[in-house]
UniProtKB/TrEMBL annotation:
Signal peptide range in chain numbering: 1-16
Transmembrane annotation, as ranges: none
Cellular component, GO, one term: plasma membrane
Gene expressing this chain: Chadl
Basic residues composition-biased segments: 709-732
Keywords, comma-separated and alphabetical: Disulfide bond, Extracellular matrix, Glycoprotein, Leucine-rich repeat, Repeat, Secreted, Signal
One Pfam family from the record: LRRCT
Assembly: Associates with collagen and binds to collagen fibrils.
Highest taxon above the source species: Eukaryota
Presence of the UniProt keyword DNA repair in the record: no
Cited InterPro entries: Cys-rich_flank_reg_C (IPR000483), Leu-rich_rpt (IPR001611), Leu-rich_rpt_typical-subtyp (IPR003591), LRR_dom_sf (IPR032675), LRR_TM_domain-containing (IPR050541), LRRNT (IPR000372)
Protein name (database record): Chondroadherin-like protein
Length: 732
């Protein structure tokens, strides 16, 4: 035993010497924590035998090839909130034992074919809250052990055929809170073990029956919060489906045989739709429960057949009548046929049934020097030193990768015969001109990547023929102003990237026609002024990123009318003072506000007027103010970052101190003055003990007497630290 103890102590001592400076190493459990350490690269002195590595809240930007080759025994890796923008191909090679990988809340936009190579034992992959707009075919091809894939809250619009190929044992696929409105008919074809699919909170306008028919084993399907208006006959053919959620959609009618090909269906959730009634769902023989709560049900004679069917089939129904007035509020299961009378005949609703796009099979040859994959409908001529855009790709090509060539210009009709094309990559092609008619015929194009080119202007006619374009990436070009009116022909544009250009002003008319725009990225420009009407056309805007510009004040007047804005980034702008009601126009919707690294010296007492419980995260780190206004009504805060702010810890700051205690937030706030408190955490400073009323309430006394109830939150504080960029609120 003595020898074993000496060996163990020796190993522990060796491991301890290798522990990176900002990290904490628990050698007995083989855990390493490097939380919020401002690391910009993966430490190269992590003990080799480490099993669990927690790197949350750092600043890596890129995960390079072989980043974890020195820690081959890892089973759990957490990279949440690390500002990761790119996973290089082979980033995780060597991690054959890893079972859990969390990459949530980063800025990853694209998953490449080899990004996740080497993770043969991975069981859970969390990619929630990134900016993933596209998944290249084969990206998950090496994840044969994965059981849970979380892609919630990204920017996906389209799922190509076989996109999940290789996930043979996947049981739960989470795609909620994206912008999906196009699914390839074979998108789910390679998921034989899937049991649960979450597609709620997307933009699906019709039930994607053909794609869902491939899921023979799925038992639960979430399709709520999609603008689906009609469920057609035999629309859903899922042999094992038991639970279907179509709540909070836009349903106006359901065909009698809509679920005839889903014989195991037991529960059907149709809450909060626009249904005035339903026909007898004769095809759903196993149905046990239907929820119709929140629908404007007309309990007239037209609803009698449905009511009679409920009784015969012994189906439990939830919901109540909206009309006629005599029956308003009556539960469905309390109605008797004589009560369900008809006055004037009620015409049945006749919603327009969305037509499906015909599938065209291509038979063209692949251009010389390029590669074409018939299984993935994928063509590539990447980095071939081409001077002209090649032609002759198969007609069913969905993804075309032409990156890193030297085209210079894109002429009219450059992509003939590619009506099925969904994603077009033209990054780093020295393109200076996109000529009118360049995209003619690309009627199904959703993604267009023009990053890292030489474009300085665009005409609306350049986008003629591509009406479905939803994602346009123009980062790293030469724009000095937004191309006014260029988006007139893009009614479906959702996301516009214009980061790292030289745009100096947003003027009225610049965004004309972009009425459906949700996300606008303008970071890293030279914007010094935004005219009041510049953002007026974008009434549906949800995210506005203006970090790293030259704004001298909050563009309050330009925010008027943006009633859906939930995220505003103003970081790294030279805003020194913030006046009253700075965010009042978006106070009813704003949830995430970034005001860090601005050199901010003063925030007026009324700057946050109107903001309150809806605010979930507020970033104020690395500024110069010595106090902040009352935020006592910010009761919904989960993240508040006040690091590197030189607070003056006198009696005027006591309300802030008490408020932080009450909310149980870890905010990183330290004193900058007076001298005796400099460098101390605000919560530990003794300068407050001379303040009137210090002995009252939670902040009372130098050593306040704590009750049992008062001691419990302190435990939560210790366990509730978030490794995020800020600090998370503890939860019971």
């Amino acid at each position: 035993w003595g020898l074993l103890l000496m060996v163990a102590l020796g190993l522990e001592g060796t491991a301890a010497t290798r522990c990176p400076r900002p990290c904490v190493c628990d050698n007995l459990r083989a855990h390493v924590l490097c939380l919020n350490g401002n690391l910009t690269a993966i430490p190269d002195t992590i003990p080799q035998l480490t099993k669990k590595l927690d790197l949350r809240g750092n600043s890596f930007t890129v995960i390079p090839v072989g980043a974890f080759l020195d820690t081959p025994y890892l089973t759990h890796l957490d990279l949440q909130r690390c500002k990761v923008e790119r996973l290089e191909e082979g980033a995780f090679r060597g991690l054959g034992r890893l079972v859990y990988l969390n990459l949530a809340s980063n800025s990853i936009a694209l998953l490449y074919q080899e990004s996740l190579d080497g993770l043969s034992s991975l069981q859970q992959l969390i990619l929630e809250g990134n900016r993933i707009e596209e998944i290249q075919p084969g990206a998950f091809g090496h994840l044969g052990s994965l059981t849970v894939l979380d892609l919630r809250a990204n920017a996906l619009v389209y799922l190509p055929d076989m996109v999940f190929q290789g996930l043979q044992v996947l049981r739960w696929l989470r795609l909620s809170h994206n912008a999906l409105h196009v699914l390839g008919s074979e998108a789910f074809a390679a998921l034989p073990a899937l049991r649960r699919l979450s597609l709620d909170h997307n933009e699906l306008q019709a039930l994607p029956g053909e794609a869902l028919a491939r899921l023979d084993g799925a038992t639960r399907l979430d399709l709520g919060h999609n603008p689906i208006t009609y469920v057609a006959e035999e629309a859903l053919a899922m042999a094992s489906l038991k639970h279907l959620f179509l709540d909070h959609a836009a349903l106006q009618d359901v065909a009698p045989d809509a679920f005839a090909r889903s014989p195991q269906l037991r529960t059907l959730d149709l809450r909060e739709n626009q249904l005035r009634g339903l026909p007898p769902l004769a095809g759903a023989g196993g149905l046990a429960r239907v929820s119709l709560a929140g629908n404007p049900l007309l309990c007239s004679c037209l609803l009698r057949p449905f009511r009679d069917w409920l009784v015969r089939a012994r189906v439990q129904a939830e919901g109540s009548c909206t009309a006629p007035p005599a029956l308003r509020g009556r539960p469905l299961d309390s109605l008797r046929p004589p009560e369900m009378r008809c006055g004037r005949p009620q015409p049945p609703l006749s919603p327009t049934v969305p037509s499906e796009q015909p599938r065209v099979d291509g038979s063209g040859q692949c251009p010389r020097g390029c590669t074409c994959s018939p299984d993935f409908h994928h063509g590539s001529c990447e980095n071939r030193d081409l001077r002209e855009i090649p032609q002759g790709f198969p007609g069913d090509t969905r993804l075309l990768d032409l990156r890193r060539n030297i085209f210079g210009t894109v002429p009219p009709g450059a992509f003939p015969g590619l009506k099925e094309l969904v994603s077009l990559h033209l990054q780093s092609c020295s393109i200076g001109v996109l000529q009118p008619g360049a995209l003619l015929g690309l009627e199904n194009l959703v993604y267009l990547y023009l990053t890292d080119n030489r474009l300085s202007t665009l005409a609306a006619a350049a986008f003629k023929g591509a009406p479905r374009l939803a994602y346009l990436d123009l980062d790293h070009n030469a724009f000095t102003h937004l191309p006014a009116g260029a988006f007139q022909l893009l009614p479906n544009l959702i996301s516009l990237h214009l980061q790292h250009n030289a745009i100096g002003e947003l003027a009225e008319g610049d965004l004309a026609g972009a009425r459906g725009l949700r996300w606008l990225y303008l970071a890293g420009n030279t914007i010094g002024h935004i005219t009041p009407a510049a953002l007026a056309p974008t009434k549906m805007l949800e995210k506005l990123h203006l970090e790293g510009n030259r704004l001298m004040e909050v563009p309050t007047s330009a925010l008027r009318g943006l009633s859906a804005l939930s995220e505003l980034k103003l970081s790294r702008n030279p805003i020194k003072r913030m006046g009253d009601s700075a965010f009042l126009p978006v106070a009813s919707s704003l949830q995430h506000l970034y005001l860090d690294n601005m050199g901010l010296e003063q925030i007026s007492s009324g700057a946050f007027a109107g903001l309150g419980p809806k605010i979930r995260s507020l970033y104020l780190e690395s500024n110069k103010m010595s106090n902040i206004p009352d935020m006592s009504n910010f009761t919904g805060l989960e993240i508040l970052n006040l690091r590197d702010v030189p607070f003056h810890c006198d009696c005027q700051l006591l309300p802030l101190r008490r408020w932080i205690d009450k909310l149980n937030l870890h905010v990183g706030a330290t004193c900058g003055s007076p001298a005796e408190a400099r460098g101390l955490k605000v919560k530990l400073s003794t300068t407050f003990q001379t303040c009137p009323g210090w002995g009252r309430g939670k902040a009372g006394g130098a050593r306040p007497e704590k009750t049992k109830a008062a001691r419990k939150p302190s435990k939560k504080k210790r366990s509730g630290k978030s490794p995020a960029r800020g600090f998370k609120k503890s939860r019971a």
